[in-house]
Structures
1.
Amino acid sequence: MTDTISARLDEHLRAPDLFGSASGRIVTLAFMVILLCVPLAAHFLGIRLQLVSLDFITRILCLAIAAVSLNLILGFGGMISFGHAAYIGIGAYCVGIPAYHGYESGWLHFPLAIAASALFALVTGAISLRTKGVYFIMITMAFAQMGYYFFLSLDEYGGDDGLTIYSRSVLDIINIENKMVLFLLTYTCLVASIYAVYRIVNSRFGMVVRGCQSNETRMKALGYNTYAYKLTAYVIAGGMCGLAGALLGNFTTFISPDMMGWSRSGELMFMVILGGTGSLFGPVFGAVTFVFIEEVLSSFTTYWALPFGVLLVLSVLFIKGGLNGLIQRGWNRD
Amino acid sequence: MLDIQGLKKSFGGVVATDSVTLGVDAGELHAIIGPNGAGKTTLIAQLSGDLRPDAGHVVFNGRDITTVPTHRRSHFGLARSFQITSVFMGLSVIDNVALAVQAHDGHSFRFWQPATTQARLRKPALEVLEKVGLASRAGTIASAMSHGERRQLEIAMALATDPTFLLLDEPMAGMGAEESAAMVSILRSLKGEKTILLVEHDMDAVFALADRISVLVYGRIIATGKPEDIRKNADVRSAYLGEA
């Protein structure tokens, strides 16, 4: 009996693949390479097409980091947060406000953005996670709106007019005033975030969080203090999104409370769902597709939101598992 | 080992648990039977911590656990299975059981090393699966299993927390004759090793397995005794077994 167990044990000691299926590996890797190389090539060749410009892609990458962080709690933890854009705003203001006062060091901005966002997540999560279902959705949105109105009321920092950042964060080793450097930094942060989520969701902690999504009652019966684990995941996601906010603030060099309005949170949710909840690269596919379609449609018509909405509804109805599901299935239709 | 003292619970005007007093001795298999709506599930929920009683006490190994939250009770050695199958549908069978093992292997604030490659979680999980006859199905996703297999998985997960006391809520619910027989033999193999409180509808199984039986009717225990005494008890026959 022991022999059969040790023989069987080996086949059950495998770590999940970062890319999923074989077709998933090819498409995902190709996609990530294109995302890196095309804007660089366009930059060096002097191609002036908005859709492949460094600026445009950098903005997408920032949103992709935010979507990846949201996916950690929404896709793997089943926590449907409708207030995730709050951390983008907090992260951005953690760059803007110190810069306004003359503190321009990135070694201050980025840790501050992560810490402040994580703290906001800790406080609001501690309360929100006591609720379930639609109440959780509403309360996370309410907290985010509180953040929105907080920054709106700060006249010193521009209020609803926003705040211009005259100098990007100063990092001694790299100069992110150069937009290619900022692009590369953002791309690195995105890859690091995806890898971090990959490690986290497959760790002991991640298994607990996924168990809570699947069946929280059972998790409690097994002996897990589910609240503590969910709150920790919520804080990690908040901190990660704070980083996205700091990068976005540096990129736009102009920040306003609009960055954290509830419609922004909705867009992030949509990117995750469009790309495929609970998949590692899904949020990236979702963010890229979302912003691309938005950009293309809005160049044709001022009423772009209408066809956009229809497209989004159709994609949710007909693409099972989001774009990532499509990619993972590859050519094997079933 | 488990002492239930004057437990009361009502929902609005309905008294679901009415002064239940019951003792389960270490090592015995104690069954609770009762017609539908007798309050069996409500009683289980209070023992597991999902519901807080209005009055009375639950004492486990000399410790009053009446107000202890569910997840802490598990660490005292109390495990439960659910009447309605409650497994992690999207995870594989071995992942399900490994999560149960992990719950009792220190804290889970470990964020980096993959859990699925850790033999100290997977090996005990496989051993438990072997015990309930599911080892060959370890790689199957739980949602792809038959109802009977999921009931076995349900027991495996309770066992994997290495409990001293098992609270089993209708383990045979919805099973065919063959599956029930398999479950009876699993439970028989656990007898003596674990203390078991078994709530079950399947009379054949209960009379075959139980050391003692308590009969719950309208939230009250109307009789407790050995299977043969219960079979003879006139109150039980009229209240529950009918004319049979």
Note: The first helix of chain B runs from residue 40 to 48.
2.
Amino acid sequence: MSKLQSMVLRFPESSSLDAVGYTLYIEPEGVEVTHNSPGYDLVNFVTVDNIVETDLSGIDGISTMDGVYNIGVATIDDAGNESSLSTMDSVPLDFVAPNPPGPLSIG
Amino acid sequence: MQILRVVLWLTIFSTSAFAWEGLDYYMYFGTTDEGITAAWSPGDGAQKYQIRGYHKEHKVYVDFGITENCEYTVVLPRSGHYIFEVRSLKQVGTGGITYAMSEWVQSIDPSVSTVDGNHRGWWVYGCVAPPGNLFF
């Protein structure tokens, strides 16, 4: 069982009073991230001093990525509407653990 | 705070009526963290103006406030489609809190509303505000 390094994404929370959550969209570098990109609901985020924090290594589907990506985050309100995206380009993600060392021996 | 300026031309004591559903409305877009300023022409005898919005999806009126000016900046409380409405107030008697009120005039009524100086009804759609800049 490998152990992944945490990578905490942070952003100021939406000022909308009816905001209830966020969705992360992700594309490989060079591809524009949009609302049609593969999306992941941020279900395990915490908000500290109006800053939202979420550990990307804990998101199924992202925790196997290894490469450079463009990411975007949208606010979701209680009606299911999504905001425009706050984006960040060229984010290196590496959640693929190296192979373990070979068999141990005592010589 | 960003200001999105829209103009509602107010006809005090208007009695006009329209089959609004069949008309071509203009849609202003803003977000729930922006200030949206509606303006109107003075009504004869008006001392104050009351502004409210009708939230179409929730079918509720939102009281925006009262002003002595002919414009008012609103921050929409939630996402959705809004019709703006304004009416004139004139104090009557000496009690200080009793007002005679005009009818409400609505932003979707092209007889009292303008877009770029032309008579046309309008709505405002408030989009949910995005989060701030991302960082690690």
Note: Chain A has one domain: 18-94.
3.
Amino acid sequence: MARTVAMFTDTSLCIGCRACQVACKQWNELGLEAPEWTGSYQNHAHFTDQTFRLVRFVEEPKTNGDLAWLLMSDVCKHCADAGCLNVCPTGAIYRTDFGTVNINQDVCNGCRYCVAACPFGVVTFNDDTGTAKKCTFCNDRLHNGLGPACAKACPTESIQFGFREELVVRAQKRVETLKGLGFKDAQLYGADSRGFLGGLNAFFLLLSKPSTYGLPDHPKVPQKNLFVDSLVSIGSALLVGVGALVAFRRRGGGED
Amino acid sequence: MALLQSPHWPLLIDVYFFLGGLAGGAFVIATVANLLDARRYRDVVRTGYYLTLAALAPCPVILIVDLGVPARFINMLLNFNPLSPMSMGAWALLAFSACAGFAALFTFLEDIGRARDLSGPKLVAGVIGGFFGFFLAAYPGVLLGVTTRPLWTNSHVLGALFLAVGASTGAAAMALILLATSRRTGEGVAGLRVMTVLSLLIQILSVVLFVGLVSMSGSAASVSALSQLTSGRFALLFWGGAVVIGSVLPLAIGLVDLKRRSIGLTAIASVLVIVGGFLVKYVIMAAGQA
């Protein structure tokens, strides 16, 4: 088993150049899409089956009424406990030896359950192939000793690739530095492997609280509901079963 | 800006959830009737088992054509994933189809006079199939709960609701068929009337719990999604269709009908239950994916 790799996206260094988004498209041969107006420079509003890296342009109101620009290059989080992988009924979604999460395009049959189960809206459906699509962590590059194309192309080292435990240490130092510089809301998102979803293998340094970026503050794997929802269903089944026994118990006479 | 994406499952999936639930409900009801008095409820049992098979027949086709790559449907049956309600549902559909097929076959052999009394073998197929029938009726609701869609993920009762809808629609469909086909309908239809009323009570209780639990979940996204259902663009369909016309009205008619025992009232209530049961599932699917 190879060591777990990770991508660390330090949003404090992002200049919104979208080199990552373009490099991702180039390497993964993702097709053209009609641009859409999102109210800012951001294109597109969401991940699509042709956009696996997406630079978010977030406008945060400041106390003086101005807007501050928060830039964040978003990507599949490759969760240690991944909702998409958990719900996949075909086994097409699998964890690689590097700890990343991938969709086997030759097995996926396009049921779209993973699309509904991702806590971050990463997985999308491709009508042409009939399969689910998302960031592969450049699996082909990984197997040839290269980092992902987005990290390679990033001119400011906002996206860093490496072994997870080394990146986490580096990220923690960076948060302290930024706090010392006055960025009081600087925080890591998904770096803690004991935190939500068992930690994210693509984790982030944010300059504001996660919800400012549209990220869930406490993302949960959908399987947290499996036990309770099943239990309530069994309760309902018992009630219906007893109901049927009551309805068809022996009783005298009574014709229409 | 919310990040979540919708699976955009088409209307046919709602139809499958409806038919699977109806089949599961009808099968369980027929099995219980067979268990309690095979001779007296003979018509109920054969109606239930034939209806189950008929409702089940289109289900695999629906599921396969809705896949992105239909030819790869078999991949679902090359994998067993207990964490995935969809995987478990695929297996349950397979197991239930086998049981429903045997139950209908035994009924058929009796009908054409090739066997005198197969209530014993029917009971075996019925009890094993009853478990999978319940599973088939409930699992779509659990499947929706095991997503990150805001309307579904904080409700916890969708499996219970879908199962109750399966039972009410199953009972109502059986009552309609019995009324239309059988001369001696007495005891069987009387039992189905009671069954419909009891299932509707569980169904309405589940809807109340659904609205209550989601509105008290503390999740802004879930509350906002619920408002689409209760006061937004799905409100008319939800309150008017699913709740009033599809659940409360047939419950009221059914309660009157318990005493009155009128063929007309039973027929009206049954039609409303079937329409309402579909609307319950449809509106939750539509609002949850909007």
Note: Chain B has one domain: 11-289.
4.
Amino acid sequence: MVNRYNALRNLALMALLLSGAALFAQTATGTINATLVNKSGIALVFDTDAGGVALGASGTSTATLNFGTISAFGPLSAGVTRPSVGPVTFTVQTIFDVNVIEGGLTSANYTLTANLAAAAPTGISYKIDAVSLTTAAQTIQTNGAYNADTAHNLGLVVSMSAPGAGGPAVGSPISATINFTATAN
Amino acid sequence: MKKLVLLTIVAVIMMIPSLAAAQTATGTLTVTATVNSSINLVFNNDAAGVPLSSGAGTNTATLAFGNVSAFGAIAANITRSTTAANFTVSTPVDVLVTKANSASANYTLKAQLGAADAVNTWQVGGVAVTNAAQATITATGAYGSNVAEAIAITVPFATANGTAISNTINFTATAN
């Protein structure tokens, strides 16, 4: 009899526990204290210029620019011009934009420098605006305006000599990487 | 006083990083181009020839002999020869072919009339030129220097006075 009583009591307790779980939704609460430090900074991105070659990865800080096929006398891709030809070299040129974005700075403008990541390929030299590039940083601009696209000319000065005689290799892509640094003034 | 000194030192220390480290941002632009060899042809005035009427230094020029006749006065720098049935006027024009990024040693120059001329005979560099096919003017043209090519027209005596003679000579230089 006692055993039967105990069994009934246990069943009743289980029923009560189950009904409680059904009646009250489970909740949990927590508090997080978020803290941030507003750091000032600048960022540099390359943008396609309306008058120039379309950049690969435009709007980022790691872009690509392909002149396509270039020659002293043949046709050029859209956005590429040939401001000079001969007698020793020819120059092809395009325009790209640099946008240096700032936040939280009192700096009025920035200085832009550029350098080749490695020695220029044989028979080709690179210019940003009027500045010939080397592997050492060269100053391109000393008073760049923040938060606006600033157009720069990228020129390739190409030797007209034959391959193996001081001229560049022909018929295959030639690449160079240009590193840019913007420094807040 | 000690507190003031301490506060000043702390303030200076806090300012040092902003003075020492200028804010910088970097970017990388990878530039690619494929160089092709090419050649170019232009016409230039020859010192001993009739000056080009237009287009000197380009590949589309105009040469005007002016009034020509078998026996009358003739303009400067025009050479004339006469036979029993016709006369020939000739003047040199410089052809300049330039190469770039090419190991080609020389070029072949060909010429062809733009339209048929059943009456007059045309020559370039002593080679008869018609509109039927390209005629080879030289097979070993030297790059980078003006090469004088005589442009000659042979006109029959039967041609009426005041007849205008005009044609286009198309030149093609091909790298060898």
Note: The longest strand of chain B covers residues 86-100.
